[in-house]
User: Fold this.
Amino acid sequence: MIPIKIRAHHLLCIQGYQGHGYSQDFEENMGRMVEKFRVNPTLPVMVVCETDAICEYCPHQSAGRCTNTTLTHEQISKMDSLVIEKLNLVSGATIGINKLISLTKKLNKTDVVEICDGCSWRECCLWFQDK
Ligand code: SF4
Ligand code: SF4
Assistant:
């Protein structure tokens, strides 16, 4: 089975998602992804530090770069690197989504504040708010 590419910090975003996104296409895709992971907990996911299956439907994705103006492409990539580092993962590794989600539970409030620094969704993100 071909793994779904997910950038590392999106492992957190999918757990905090409450239906708010950058566009209708983005929200519909995000909803599908969250549901897909819910009903297929062992689905293989390739963890990456680049645009992924969620960025694919985002209006800020352009030629493989994040063009969001709230945070730069480099700042977004740093979020991914922080998650990879804190969870002792390797970029490009393929692991079941359930195992990845379990790993993220190791992150404490300090980690999450550092990773999510500057994200404009913090106020409506359950992952961030519940930490
Ligand atoms: S606060 Fe932002 S970056 Fe952090 S998990 Fe939520 S949506 Fe993702
Ligand atoms: S804002 Fe950037 S990182 Fe977030 S989904 Fe859109 S393209 Fe991907």
In short: Residues 4-130 form one domain. Residues 24-39 form the longest helix (16 residues). The helical segments are 10-16, 24-39, 73-86, 97-104, 109-115, 126-130.
